[in-house]
Amino acid sequence: MDKLEHSECTAMILPVKDALEVLGGKWKLQVIIALSFGPKRFREIAREVTGITDKMLSKELKNLELNQLVKRTVYDAFPPVVEYDLTTHGQSLHKLIGELKEWGDLHRKVVLGR
Question: What are phi and psi of 75, to 5 degrees?
């Protein structure tokens, strides 16, 4: 990357800061990855995202809904069925997640020799 001017630096920092505020934390990207394989019920997500508590999963799903990355659908059934799925906006993260996976694989090789 060439040397950036101050205004270019500021223009890069703000959207990255916004993205990190929405996606930051231990669980959000893991939940998004689980949902990228198709709609899931709460228990299915909890099984795939190992280590997350029900309380934290509920909190993260609500936050992802507020940021229009996940949609919650309640089906009229007995007992009620609730399903979570990525929105089109949430699906736009697919490329970013792929890049993070590639970088993570490289990082493991560099740091851990694996």
Answer: -95, 140
